Amino acid sequence: MEMLNLVRNLEHVFxxxxxxxxxxxxxxxxxxxxxxxxxxxxLMPMKKKQQKVQAFLxxxxxxxxxxxxxxxxxxxxxxxxxxxxxxxxxxxxxEVAKAAIGGYQGQEPVVTSEQSA
Length: 117
Hints:
Number of domains: 2
Strand content: 15-25%
Number of strands: 5
Helix content: 40-55%
Shape: rod-shaped
Structural class: alpha+beta
């Protein structure tokens, strides 16, 4: 629905531009600039952050001491495709989603609370 409104607005801008004697492409330039700024300010940093998180999750190995996004500290005892088994106390192991691993213990978290929500 929003895409349809965007197309209608662009058609309206082109119609107004040709009525004023301007080239319709000159009215498209500010729109393209806004899209470019949006990409470089918002989308590109977000993509880099996702790549960093994915690299962290791919590098996890048995024996790593990690903290989950929920604040549970534990040691990795088993890795699966989508889940990780953590030992959180003697003879106490839990299975958590791999995406719920926030970072290594004692280091800055790789996944922030805004990303996990």
